[in-house]
Structure formats: structure tokens, C-alpha cells
Amino acid sequence: MFKSDRQKYNKERIFTINATGRAANEVFPTNFIKTSKYNIVTFLPLSLLGQFRRYANIYFLFIAIIQSFPIISPLNPISAIAPLVFVLGLSMIREAMEDISRHKSDNEVNAMECTKIVNNKQVKTTWADVKVGDIMYISENEMFPADIIVLSSQFESGVCYIETSSLDGEKNLKPKSAIKETQTVFECKETQSQIQMNFNSNQQFKAQGNPPTPALGDFEGSIHFPNGSKKVLNGKQLLLRGAFLRNTKFIVGVIVYTGEDTKIMRNAEPSRIKQSTIENTMNKLILGILGIQIIACALSAILSSWWLHKSFSKHIYIIITEQNYTLLSAIAFFSFFLLYNTMIPISLVVSMEFVKVFQCYFINTDQDMYASKRGKYAKAQTSTINEELGQVEYVFSDKTGTLTCNQMEFKYCIIGDILYGKNEKNMAIPNHNNVQQDTTQFKHSVFNFQDSTLTGIIEDNAAYQNQSELPRKLIIQSNDKNATLEIKTQKQLVHEYLMLLSSAHECIAQKDKNQQINYQGPSPDEITLVDAAMNLGYRFEGQSANEQEFTIKGKQKKVELLQQFEFDSNRKRMSVIIKDNGIYKLYIKGADSIIKARLRPDQPYLGFIQNKLSEFSSIGLRTLLMAMKILSEQEYLAFERQKDALASSEKREQEKEELANNLEKDLYLLGATAVEDKLQDDVPETIADLLKANIKVWMLTGDKLETAENIAKSCRLIQHDFTIMKYSETDLNKLRVQLSENKLTYQACIKDGKKKSILVEGESLVTLTGNQQLKREFTKMAMGCDSVVCCRVTPKQKAEVVHLVKDLNKITVAIGDGANDVNMIQEAHIGIGLYGNEGMRAVQSSDYALGEFRFLWKLLLIHGNWSYIRISEMILYFFYKNMIFTVPQFLYSFYSAYSAQTYFDDWYITFYNLFFTSLPLIARATLDRSVYYKINVRNEEYTEIYQKSTQYLKGKFPLLYSVGQKQTIFTLSNFIFWWGQGFIHGVLVYFITYACFDTELVTVNGQNAGFATLSITAYTAIIFIVDFKIAIYTKFWTFINVITLLFLSIGIYIAYFFISNYFKGTYSEFTPAYLIQSPNFYLIIALLNVVVFIFDLVINTIIHEFYSTETDKIIKWRREFKQLARKGNVLQKIEMMQQGKRENGQRDWGDSFYEQILEERLKSDRDLNVIDEQQDILDSKVQQYVSSPQNLNYSEQTNRQFHQRVELQQIQHPLQNNNAQVTNYQMSQKQQQNFKNVNEDSRINHPQQQRIYVR
């Protein structure tokens, strides 16, 4: 097809409805899907092109090319080509496997069967063969093969239901409906053998649609009938490719978008490739190393030229002329460039990829991050930024569904000026900290609402009739005053209120086999309100395109549904227009600030409701206002005419929204609702630990300021000692004053060392960020606060706030669970989506997915911290081991007349990075742990102490997070330190080897050491030094570490060492056979390892002595505690501390743990003393009362009570020493004897009661 034609049709999007099967609409893309990148012909060139987008691969390709010129290269070209081919081959194999999987998926999808209608007959075809304009027949539970306009359905109303979970993750069914004109024209009846369609296939129908866009709900179009009439189409008629038809036997529709134009393909854009801070820093360092390498090569080339110029007259075999002198210098430069190329490790990038893949595996399989409520593990959807998780400075969190459960409970409702729900407990701040939830099933809403007064009014209970009369009747009039509704009683007001709840929504009623209704809707709030109306007697049964059905107190009721204006984050309201008994009613619900601005003046209930809303907000409840108005028939018909007039307008959706906006004014307030959304498990503790880790937490929510503030306090985002600064003004001048006052407060907090927090409303934020001066001052204050709460913010504002902080080079995390969080998730350095009740859009757009907010603790503080440390140390070690290997090459040039001769054999160079030294480093970078908070020592006697020690260490772990935040490991100074170590160790290897073998005999036949002997000895020493150093620095040993170090590194090298003895024409020919007979060979290797070990030991001792970190302290304490636990000496240490003795005479870092145990023990002792005193009192009372016949059994009861108290005391305080346990036992025995004596006396004094006692 021609590009100009495509552009034309993309703009106009006009096509013929193809009922005859003849070729039509060929200008549009086919429905053939191709997500694969390559085919057999293009794989090699395109894959290679992709590989060489990496600068490192280009560098090593350049090395391989110049090494192929014999005049330049002192090395075999294979030694450069083989490693490059190996590294590229691994990456290309991975690419090929992924693309083969994509090919299989494409073939399966394209070959799927579907049914189209040609000349009123069903014809089977494949997804790949359908075209724009084809009429499709879709059966129940079938997936739509393309984007389709529904023309008719099983139901006369034209309604059908679809599930879009594969598109947006939402499992709630969505209603779609054909317009009544197409439902009539394309009516279809199903018979046993075929379908019968009331349609003349010779008629010409045309359809029009807007250009394809990624927005799932965005569609504007029209259908043109043969008689010239035109009807408007919108998103309600669009069925998307990949969605399923549910609860509807069949639909008939016409294809409007195919292939790459479908919504699902438009959204299948490649995700933004993120690069971590460490990788950016590493790339800069590689450029720096390249510069150093060029300088070293230039220096060596200059020295080579100098030597040639100085010595060529003494050596007749050296022929130099003016013409070749410059050429020889250039050749020398590139020859040295080849020798020194090992400064940059060729296997670093591919090794990092392997390590990051394993890190993702550990995140994905971590049992501690398994959400049993949802049956979901954590999921790493990218591996490129794992180490960034350990460097986070700011966390931006949504509230609903992220910090809270998004499981709503209907708590209170206000109808008129009466609050219902007060039969429950008095309003108080809910206990969010210890929420116990059902782990077997997750429900959207909970209904525990009780109010006998409201129930009595609804059920016409005679006892409440006297409460039904309103003090002042509410008269609702249309704007033109041609329609009036009088509400005289509270019962009428309750009826309108509950009708609003049960009709103004977008829920679908699904019935099970027992006719029990399960509501599905776009949000838990929506479902909660409809569910509440049902439980109060107003049951929504379902709706068609133009009708709603209810069961009200057992009676069926139907109303005509005329209009429905959906909720979105900008409107913050939802409304419907229904015709009920001839009256046109507009019901509306929404945020209080939005509805309040649309009310008529002098609303009788507004003052009372506002006061109650403030109380609800103060306890963290979510509130909505309910209002209504009535329309006269003339008003509604005028609205219909205006709406129909927009059919041909290009901006009809915007203009339709403006029409709705004008209609939703002059409202009458009916009441309000308050629902509770409990905090998720461990949210307060998680946030407290994040703050302790110096991670600033910002909460971004659409709730109003008071609600947001109280939720922030409940989850410890704002703590009791925080100073709060608020921004709620929208006027620029007032906001300047507020900013000045808060600035003084901020400075005072800094001076006094107080913690501080900011609360800012969305509209205030717009004004603040719109003025550059105010923006700078506000940003400076916000960045210095411990927490920030932004309320009443839109999804766009959430992303802008993240961008504001991100621009200051702070590493950010955004976490949310809904579609309104996608913008900020994509904006942040790291996006985290939560599996929630509002679909999978957040998860699909994220880098990492979690089941609950509390798992953020382990993702950042454990996996993030470990990943940062592992990757940082791995990179440093890679450059260290390559530096120690390169230095002998550099030094050898001084002993070889600067002739650019290699010190090591070609194949030894090739295998150094690929096989001999990489695997142990990869294993360490994958498995090593700097420190862990869990302590597992099998000693049942101290089980509780182990549990407490784990909690103690877990509380200390946030302090370790600064390692990544401050980037204390992968820094320029650390890089120079490690590189310097490599240089010094390389110097030691070269000169010690040279000195020891200079004149020594190495063979039994009297031969002395040759060049090959020095080379292989030095190489062997480097292998052992590198591996030995890895062993020293490994803190957490596993079986894999041992295997890779001993067998896959040292073992493979030793095997190659012996095999290379038989490589003819190489340095190693016969040399290993000589070396294994030389004691010097073993002594040099041992000596070099000892020297390097002593060198490292001195440096590390100095570092640990003068620069001890929190990690070092925890490691030391863990080691000591485990030793005490194994020997059973933990209680002895506690007893020593109780006596005021300390092992070293001074307080140690971990003494607070033992002091905590000691305090619990002392408290337990005090409790025992209290029990002893109380028991003496009980004994005296027993003696007084047992003489009475009615109290004969009192002593037995007291005995039982005492035993219960002792058992309870032992459960609560198990850490008692043996003396305390003996005391308990003796007390018990003593009391039992007393009770026995008392009972004996009782039987003597009251023989008539003896039978009762025995019973």
C-alpha cells in the first residue's frame, strides 16, 4: 500500500461494512500480527547490529580487527576473536531463544479460528485473514480477533458483557451495547444449524472512526445508513481485541481496527530501557580507563621509538629509515594497545547480566514476599536496575490500595441532617496497626453496618413513624420550574438516597446458581455503596442499555435509564439521569469539594453534613456527597437535541462533557457516605523503618487533606513529634504568606533538631509550582522534610511531583496499585506495582510487582542493599583482577626493549577472563550476603531468645541502607583503591617471580629458568591470588561457591596447565613439566599469596579499626551471639549484666539487646512478687469464707484460678531462671497444701456437703 493512502485513511477512517465477502478496505493493515524481531535471513545482521550498540562490544571488535594484522599484533588473532565471539554468541543465543518464542506465539495467534458472516452465512476463517469491514459472529467466552463495533447482541436491548483482564488486568465485567438502530437492522437469531440474520447484504453501509490510538476507551465514530441517516458511535460500542465475551451467547459486529492499529498492539510499545546509576558511573570509568590505556600505549610507543633511535646503529639487523620511522612508532602504539586491552574486562557486561538474572530469580521466589491473600509472589520485570533498589532516597506512594487494603467497609451514612450507623461503637480512630484479614478470600467490601432507626424507617416500622416527618419539607424544582418533587418525610428522603446509591454507578450484577448477587464494578468504593443499598433493602438486579431493574423491599421496580456520565479522575463525580414514574431525575455522587461547588444556595443540610464530614476525615474515613435534581421534560429534550447536534462535531466528546458539566449544577444535597479502608498489615512498621533508613516517604492521594493527614498519622508517616506545615490556599498572595510562615517554622525545626512534615493540597501545588520563586522555596523545604503528603492530586500531578524530585538527581521509587498511578510509576527511576483490586495496569507498567506494601521493606532494605553491594564489589573486583593481569605486560616492555612482546601465552590470555577467574566472582556476586537479620541456631531451650534476636537485628537493618544511598562502595576513591591494589599486586607478582627465577636451576638436567617459566609461574600465581582474595572477601559460603572456586576455576586451570604442556609452538610447550619438578614454583606461588594476604590484612585492619561501619558491628554481634547460643551461655551473660558486670568493662554495640531481655526478666520477677502478695490475700479470704456452706467450693475454685495464673505467667515470661521456676513450683505446692487443709476442715465442719465436694 502507498504511504499517502495510509495517511489519508488513518485520518478519515471511513470504510464499507463488507457483508458480501468481496475485497474491500484493502488500504488498512491486515490482521496478521508479527511481534518477532528476526527471520532466518535477518537474524544474523540485525542481531549483530543490536549487539554493537554497546560501546564495550565496539571496543573489543576494534581490538579483534587490529589484532588480525600480523605487522601490528604480537598475539594470535584467535585470542581476541574467540572471547568476542563467545560473549556475542551468548547474547545472540539468548536473543534467538526469545525470538523463537515470539514466532511460536505469533503463529498460534494468527492461526486462531473465528467466524465471519458472508451473505448471511457463517464462514470459518483465521484471525490473520479478517479485514476491516468484515462482519463477525462472536460466541460466548470467545476472544475478539480485532477491534469490533458491536452491531447487535443476543439481547433485544443490544447489551453485552466483556472481560478485559488481558488488556488492563480488570476481571470485572464491562457492559457494552449496540445502538438500537443497528440492533434492529443487524438483528440475529440463533438456530440449531445456523444463524438467521435480518439483514439485506446488498445494502451499502459505511462506518467512520477516529484514527487508531492507544487509549483503551477512546473511540469516536458513526455509522451511515443507506437512507442517508447517520448515528453516532462511541466507546460503549467498541469491543477490543484480546477481550472476552462473557454472559452473552453471541454478538454480531463489524471490524474497525486490525493488526497494528488495534488498541492492544498500540499499547504493546517496547518498555523504556532503564540504566542504573552504577552502570552510568561504570561507563564513565571505562572511558577514563581507555584514556589511561591510550596514555600508557603512547608512553610505551615513545620509549620504543627512543630505544630504536638510540640502539639501531648498534644492531645491524635493525633497519630504520626516515620513511619507516613514523610507521614503526604507529605500529608500536597499536601493538601496545593490544597488549594493554585487558585493562577493560571483556566478560564484565555478560557476567553482570548473569548475576542480575539470578538476583531477579531470588526476588521472584522469596517466600517472605509471598502474598497469601492474592496467591502472588514478588515479580522482577526488569533486571537492569536491581542495584538501584539499594540506593533509593525517595518513595512516592499512593494511598488507597497501596497503604490501605482497598477493602471498603460501609461505616456511616448521613441522610438529611441525621447520622445513621451510630448504633455501632462511638467514632474513634480505627486501629490500623493490627488488622487481621481473611487470607482465603479477598472481598471488595464488608457490610457490618447497623442502625435500628434507619432499618425501622425503611421497613415501615410503626415505632419510627413519629420520626419520619421532616421539620421542613424539601422542595426540589427543575430550573425552568415546570417540574417539582416534594419530599415531606424522612422516609421519602431515605428512598431517594438509597435509589441514588443503587442506580448511580457502573456496576454489573452477576447471579450465581443460588440467585445470590455478586456485584462487579470499576472500583471497590462503587461496589461498597451498591452493596450497602442492597443490604438496606434496595437491591440492584441489573441493567440493559436503557433500563435498570431493582427489588425494593421484595417488590420489583424498573426505571428508564436515559443517560450515564462516568466517573474519571478529572471529573471526580458520577451521575445518571433516570425516568422514574414520569419524573426525570438526575442522581449524582462525588468528592465533597466538587459536589459542594455545584449545590444550590441555602441547602438545609449542608452545615450539619460539613461538620460530620470533618469528624469522618479526622478518623480517616473516605467520604462522598450525594445530591440530586429533577428536570422537566422540556429541559431533558433540549439536552437530547444538543447532544444529537454534536454527532458531526470533531470535538463531540469534549463538547458532550461540557453539556454534562452544565447539567450537573443547581443540585439539592441529600446526604453523604463514609466508608473505612483499613491499613494493610505492617504498613506503620514498614514506613517507620523506611524513615529510619533515611528514605523520605511522600504520600500522593486524591483524598482531602483531613483524611490524608489522619491516614498519614495512622501509618506513622507523620509521627507524634513531627511539626506539620500545611499549604491549603489557592490564591497566590495568600500562599506567599503561608509559605513565609512555614519557612520560619521550618528554620526553627532545623535549629531545634525537630522532625517535620508538609501537607499540601493539589490546587495549592499547582499555584506553587506555577511560580518559579515559590517553586524553588517550596521544593527546598519539601526536600528537607522527613515526609510529605500531597492530597487532592490528579494522576498527572503525581507524575509531576515525582519529576520535581527526580530532576534534583535523587533516586526515586513510585509505588501504586491502580491505573491512576501508572504515570508516576513510569516517571520514577524504579516503578513498583501492587497486585490490587483495580486491575493490573500498575503492575503491567512497573519494573517490580509486589503483593503487599510491607514487602517493600525486604525489596529495598535486603534485596536492594545486597544487589548494590554485590554488583559494586563485582565491578571493582573485575577491574582489580584485570589490572593485576595487565601490569606484568606493562613491566615486561621495560625488559624487552619496548618491543611490544606479550608476557603471557595467547591462549592463557584468552581463558583468563572467560573461564579461569569469572565463575567464582559470578557465584559470589550472586550468593554473597554482607549480613542477614535472621539467626538460625538449633537450640530449643532458647527459641524465644532467637526470635527476639531476629527482631532486634531487623530493627537495626535500616541503618545499613546508607551504604547504597551514599554510594560508599562504588566510588571513584574506592575504584582507585582497588585498581591501585591490582597495580601493586601486579608489581609484586612480576618482580618476585623475576627475582626468584633469575638465576635459579629449575630442571633435573641442570637447565635454568627461561622466559616461559617466568610467564607461566606469574600467571599461576595471579590465578591463585585472585581466587584466594575472593575466598577471603566472601562472607556467606555455599556449596556453589566451593564448587566454582575449587573445581570450576582452580580445577579447570590445573587441568589446562597440564594439557598445555603438549601445545606445540607455544610458550607452554614442555614448560609445565619443568615447573612441577621445581620447588621454587610452589614456593613463589605460596610466597606471593602470603605477601598479598599480609598486605590486605594490614589495610583491612586499619579500615576496620578506624572506619568501622554498622555492618561490621552487626557481623561481630551476630558471631558472638551465635557462639553464646551454641554454648548455652546467653542467660549467663544476662545474669552478669544484672550484676552490673560487663566482659570488657564497657558498653558494647549489642548490649541493648541483652538489656531488653534483662528488663523483661526483671519485670517478670516483679510480677511474681505481686502474685505472691495477692496470693497471701487470697489465702486469708479463703480462711474467712470456707466456714460458710455456700462458699464450700470456693477453695477449689481459688486453687484452679491460682494454677491458671501461674500457667499464664509462665507463658508470658518464659525467660525465668531455674530458681524462679523452682519458686513457682514451691509456691504452687504450698498453696495446694493450704487448700487441701482448708478442704479437710470444711468436710469436718460441714459433713452434709461432703457428697457435693466429692462430686
From TrEMBL:
MF annotations from Gene Ontology: ATP binding; ATP hydrolysis activity; ATPase-coupled intramembrane lipid transporter activity; magnesium ion binding
Span of domain P-type ATPase A: 113-187
Compartments reported by the entry: Endomembrane system; Membrane
Membrane topology, record value: Multi-pass membrane protein
Transmembrane residue ranges: 55-72, 78-97, 285-307, 327-350, 875-895, 907-927, 975-997, 1009-1026, 1038-1059, 1079-1099
GO CC annotation terms, alphabetical: plasma membrane
Binding sites annotated in the UniProt record for ATP: 398-400, 526, 567, 589, 622, 701-703, 792, 798, 820-821
Gene3D superfamilies reported for this sequence: Calcium-transporting ATPase, cytoplasmic domain N, Calcium-transporting ATPase, cytoplasmic transduction domain A, HAD superfamily/HAD-like
Entry's family note: Belongs to the cation transport ATPase (P-type) (TC 3.A.3) family. Type IV subfamily.
Protein name (database record): Phospholipid-transporting ATPase
Lineage per the UniProt record: Eukaryota, Sar, Alveolata, Ciliophora, Intramacronucleata
